[in-house]
Amino acid sequence: MSLYLDTSVVVHAIAGSSNWFAELDADDEPFSSRLLELEITRTLRRDGLDPDIARPYLRRIALVSLDDATLAAAGQIPEHLKTLDAIHLATALRTDPTATMLTHDRTLAAVAAAHGFTVRDPINLPSAEG
Questions:
Q1: Which of 48, 64, 78, 121 qualifies as a cystine partner to 125, CB 3.0-4.6 A?
Q2: What is the second-level CATH architecture of the domain 2-120?
Q3: What pLDDT digit, counting tens, does each position of 25-67 carry?
């Protein structure tokens, strides 16, 4: 199953507050924007943690390069989203609009569902169907 991961759920996995990442099936295909690596690195540095602890997670996730078309698509999303969340949604829309979106962010979850994604919060929010 194709799974788009936003930063909120991966940070929870790295922090150990949720073990959902360890439960991924061998046939699951997690992917995210290259932005994920930067956001995780900045979050870990902010919290005084070594960014290298994220390596096992990042090795399992296919990172999609940012390009001008994705940034332009993020700017065209009509709903209100924080800039980085708009880039995540645009990446998912351009890469695999049939993927399941995993996010812990309520606003991103609602907008992704409005764009047709099945949305899951592996941390604690109820699922939403697009």
A1: 121
A2: 3-Layer(aba) Sandwich (3.40)
A3: 999 999 999 999 999 999 999 999 999 999 999 999 999 999 9
